[in-house]
Amino acid sequence: MNTQTASADIDHVARLMDTVESAEDANARAVKSTVLSPRFYTTDFQAMDALDVSSVRAEWDVMMKEYEGDNNHDHFQRDAAFADEVRTLMPQLSPEMRQEFLDFLISSLTSEFSGCILYNEIRKNVANPDIKQLMTYMARDESRHAGFINQSLKDFNLGIDLGSLKRTKAYTFFKPKYIFYATYLSEKIGYARYITIFRQLERHPDKRFHPIFRWFERWCNDEFRHGESFALIMRSQPDLLRGANKLWIRFFILAVYATMYVRDHTRPLLHEAMGLHSTEYDYTVFRITSDICRQVFPVEVDIDHPVFRRCLERLLQISLAADRATQRGGVVGRLQRAVCGVQAAWTFGRLYCVPVIHQELPKAIRMDPVW
Ligand SMILES: [Fe+2]
Ligand SMILES: [Fe+2]
Fold first, then answer.
1. DSSP H helices in 157-239
2. Cα(337) to centroid of ligand 1, in Å?
3. Separation CA 371–CA 365 (nearest Å)
4. Are 224 and 191 within 8 A, CB to CB?
5. Domains in the chain: how many in total?
6. Which residue from 105, 107, 142, 127 is spatially nearest to 227, judged by alpha carbons?
7. Residue 28 CA to ligand 1 centre (angstroms)
8. Residues of the chain whose pLDDT is less than 50?
9. What's the whole-model pTM score?
10. 126: three-class secondary structure by DSSP
């Protein structure tokens, strides 16, 4: 599939996508659970309570001091220029671009709030002082992040009712080890996404079409630290990083990368406005994430392998075909969707077979956010 055909497909689907015009639409978008949208999670709290981090105590205590210092305490306040920038810049967005930006804000808020709920639930349900303290700090940070994005949605009169979202969105149960793999990845990818956008707009301030991006640098340091916490937890439980668990790690990395790739390619205008192309942006994020993951994962996926690249592109095309089938509806639409499901599973299987890179874990676990 050449690039031109791919973007024509994306335009086609973007036109068919439900638009967000009211607070009701925005709330419905946040509540909806699809393969690509951020989810809410719950877990086995007893197993969380039994975690013992004493083998990484020195690094753990340093990290706790950082949380306690709370260097972003005053960060999530709007400055005087914020409202002016919103007033000047927002009317300049085309309707399609406005929809992509709203989708970006709603999905970012949902994933920030997902972390907030999960960390808060763990905090309430464990007695283990290390885990309780960590979850208290991380829930504090995520609640600030979600609240800050929600203020920007409120500028459009599209604020999300977080209480209702918490009650009505479906929850997925994951055993603690899957929570560690998935949440570690999502925190580190969150860091890589925010810092890539921040650096790009730092180089091209004329492309900063909303003031919220000015907050991303200090914001993503919170995400980086959250990821560090899960790195320490996993390194304190070495069984999670050995034997058959390596197959699970491989699965989670690929699932997270593939989902991000497909999802980001439904927002081509957003990346274009920042002077980025969705593919180039995603590979920058993959590269940063893979570099960071060497602190904890004994396997790394080969993002430069031609089959890896081809499979991601194929998954994108299958997802677009599935969207068209949904629009078509009826028996034919349902059949086409079923075919897409089989094709997606087959392609993911091929992706899984791309050889991985094996590596020794470093002695020092913690890393600095130097990107
Ligand atoms: Fe966050
Ligand atoms: Fe986070």
1. 162-168, 176-203, 216-236
2. 34
3. 17
4. yes
5. 1
6. 142
7. 22
8. 1-8, 11-16
9. 0.93
10. coil
